[in-house]
């Protein structure tokens, strides 16, 4: 029988890189994207102002306006060679959805694209995850144009970013709730900012997503059923060399990967995605791409689009991008660090550090928001993939805490101890390195704590716990919501003190002093990877929910339902539906992993081990016949047999338990049972035995590409 692994090794070694020529990015940035700046150049001023009013003030887009926009969009797209159009939306599957319709009207023999088509279309809502909101006999749903996010062209198709809602008005996607929070946090933040600057009328949440990923040759991907069925390797022995030398991080990028990166970045930039940074990550075969920050809604759209472009581009380079949070056990997993900030329409970053009450107000209110709603923030990053990453000694734990840095922490500790907020002007700190020709080094106001799930990093907060496959819409929806709620509460408290006769500044300080004391438990400056922190967090009363099914329950507590409803983000029906959808997605993915694990173990691993044991048995028999000691070989056969028995026994028990668990009707309880009774009792045991067999079985017999073969691209 042909060994797919050995074929994959041979194919990968014959690959050659194709060197691409580069143009200046400024020559083509955004050429395949059509946003407000393009509309301003092509629309009549009155029409353009109506589009801006729709974006800024939520005013309804008239049919006349839609027809004018559709006309210029169609002409732009046709000039670019587009033949089709689609409403591009984000159902709760986690990836984008699209249905391509031709511009060409065969009956009239012309290309058409109407304002009606731009504004609204109708996919089958019952065919997407909806938590019972829609069904086959009540299937109608709508996609509706989001004018605040640029249209773009991919593969000769004009893509129109849209929201996705049901016939009865419930949101069925990631975008619509995020847009609601954009308004909520803007209004709440602007109201508080007016204490310091009356000119502020709007505050925009911004986002920059640092996307981590692995790259392997696609021949290895094709030879690993676990990779193409689940996104991660379910088996794989630890290679002799992994990341222990720290020689991959920021190292020279392998030529094949470098050419892929250049190609991918050019495509992304043409789409208006402002990618800026590329580098090797810690684990071999792991990399990162990071854009500059954008308005949060556009930033989420661009991250989702970027992941799609990466995967398509890699395939053309005979590579595969692995976005799973933990594709390789024992190596660093991949995250998607969400860099979040708030910026006023007067140009001020509200998190830019300075010795002012203005800055302190928004910093402390962020602390308070995270402290009060840590559990639902934890739920926002829950997924079957991220469970493998969180707390795995290269990612933040499942405990939500905030890192501020020594300077800010010392200041807040002093406020807590004295009850006094004393602000003064101080110069930046410089350190003389004592090296000729090297200038003095300017210190940032915070250190960088890679172990913190939610870290202040100078002028923004970095939500590091988000998983690499995640649609950022959910964590950013939750973060915006809890911040908007907290700022509203803060303003209510300050205004009440002012109404009682307090000076405005004194009232603000009084409330902030109390918040600083109340939020002490959530502040942590130490090593979030350590067991000591787990124990300390428990003493502080912080939650540490390690698995997704239980973390998702935080979405549907009475407190969370009340918050989302009060803030106008989700109705109770909508958030309960999402809880059901995400529980079902977890259960389905874990079921697939279980069945793939069983199939590989029974159909590939055990037969390979059996063939090798037969070879060893024949060898041992021959050695005994000529009077040679065969005890070493017999010992190996015994070890192989024990490992095979462990695989077979657990695979059999796991299959039986899976059948029992899938009979549970409540999807949340089913997910919890899968996590505890299937994954918890059998996955690690089967993997342990299979990984041992990989080290024992003859290399020529082993059917699955090994870590050392996949991870070190040249």
Automatic annotation (TrEMBL):
It holds the Pfam family Gln-synt_C. SMART domains: Gln-synt_C. It comes from the Bacteria. One of its GO terms (molecular function) is glutamine synthetase activity. One of its GO terms (biological process) is glutamine biosynthetic process. Gene3D superfamilies: 1.20.120.1560, Glutamine synthetase/guanido kinase, catalytic domain (3.30.590.10). Residues 83-169 form the GS beta-grasp domain. Belongs to the glutamine synthetase family. This is Glutamine synthetase. It comes from Sediminitomix flava.
């Amino acid at each position: 029988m042909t060994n797919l692994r050995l074929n994959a090794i041979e194919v990968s070694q014959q690959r050659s890189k194709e060197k691409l020529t580069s143009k200046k990015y400024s020559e083509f940035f955004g050429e395949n994207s059509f946003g407000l700046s393009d509309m301003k150049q092509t629309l009549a001023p009155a029409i353009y102002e109506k589009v801006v009013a729709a974006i800024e003030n939520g005013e309804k887009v008239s049919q006349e306006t839609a027809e004018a926009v559709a006309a210029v969009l169609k002409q732009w797209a046709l000039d670019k060679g587009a033949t089709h159009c689609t409403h591009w939306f984000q159902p709760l599957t986690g990836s984008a959805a699209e249905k391509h319709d031709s511009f060409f009207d065969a009956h009239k023999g012309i290309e058409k694209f109407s304002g009606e088509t731009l504004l609204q279309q109708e996919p089958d809502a019952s065919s997407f995850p909806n938590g019972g909101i829609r069904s086959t006999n009540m299937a109608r749903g709508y996609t509706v144009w989001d004018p605040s996010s640029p249209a773009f062209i991919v593969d000769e198709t004009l893509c129109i970013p849209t929201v996705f809602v049901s016939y009865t008005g419930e949101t069925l996607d990631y975008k619509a709730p995020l847009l609601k929070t954009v308004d909520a946090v803007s209004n709440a933040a602007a109201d508080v900012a007016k204490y310091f600057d009356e000119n502020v009328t709007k505050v925009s949440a911004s986002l920059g997503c640092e996307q981590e990923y692995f790259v392997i040759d696609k021949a290895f991907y094709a030879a690993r059923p676990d990779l193409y069925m689940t996104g991660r390797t379910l088996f794989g022995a630890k290679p002799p060399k992994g990341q222990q030398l720290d020689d991959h991080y920021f190292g020279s990028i392998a030529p094949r990967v470098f050419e892929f990166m250049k190609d991918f970045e050019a495509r992304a930039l043409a789409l208006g995605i402002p990618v800026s940074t590329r580098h090797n990550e810690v684990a071999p075969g792991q990399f990162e791409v990071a854009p500059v920050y954008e308005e949060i809604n556009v930033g989420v759209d661009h991250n989702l689009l970027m992941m799609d472009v990466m995967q398509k581009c890699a395939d053309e380079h005979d590579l595969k991008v692995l976005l799973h949070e933990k594709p390789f056990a024992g190596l660093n997993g991949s995250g998607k660090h969400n860099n979040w900030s708030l910026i006023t329409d007067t140009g001020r970053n509200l998190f830019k550090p300075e010795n002012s009450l203005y800055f302190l107000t928004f910093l402390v209110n962020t602390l308070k928001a995270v402290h009060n709603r840590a559990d639902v923030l934890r739920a926002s990053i829950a997924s079957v993939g991220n469970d493998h990453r969180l707390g795995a000694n290269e990612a933040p734990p499942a405990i939500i805490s905030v890192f501020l840095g020594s300077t800010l922490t010392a200041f807040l500790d002093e406020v807590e101890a004295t009850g006094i907020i004393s602000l003064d002007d101080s110069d930046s700190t410089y350190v003389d390195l004592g090296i000729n020709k090297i200038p003095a080094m300017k210190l940032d106001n915070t250190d960088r704590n890679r172990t913190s799930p939610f870290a202040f990093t100078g002028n923004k907060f970095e939500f590091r716990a988000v998983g690499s496959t995640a649609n950022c819409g959910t964590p950013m929806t939750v973060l915006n919501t809890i911040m908007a709620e907290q700022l509203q509460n803060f303003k209510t408290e300050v205004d009440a003190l002012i109404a009682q006769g307090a000076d405005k500044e004194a009232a603000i300080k009084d409330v902030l002093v109390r918040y600083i004391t109340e939020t002490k438990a959530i502040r942590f400056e130490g090593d979030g990877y350590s067991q000591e922190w787990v124990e300390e967090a428990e003493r502080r009363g912080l939650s540490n929910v390690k698995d997704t099914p239980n973390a998702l329950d935080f979405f549907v507590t009475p407190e969370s339902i009340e918050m989302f409803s009060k803030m106008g983000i989700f109705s109770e029906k909508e958030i309960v539906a999402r809880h059901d959808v995400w529980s079902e997605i977890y259960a389905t993915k874990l079921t697939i992993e279980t069945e793939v694990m069983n199939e590989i173990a029974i159909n590939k691993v055990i037969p390979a081990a059996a063939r090798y044991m037969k070879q060893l048995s024949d060898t041992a028999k021959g050695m005994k016949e000529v009077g040679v000691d065969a005890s070493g070989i017999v010992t190996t056969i015994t070890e192989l047999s024990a490992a095979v028995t462990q695989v077979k026994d657990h695979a059999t028990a796991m299959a039986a338990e899976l059948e029992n668990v899938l009979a549970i009707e409540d999807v949340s309880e089913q997910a919890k049972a899968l996590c505890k009774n299937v994954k918890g009792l059998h996955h690690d045991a089967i993997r342990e035995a299979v990984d041992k067999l990989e080290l024992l079985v003859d290399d020529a017999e082993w059917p699955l590409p090994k870590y050392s073969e996949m991870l070190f691209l040249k």
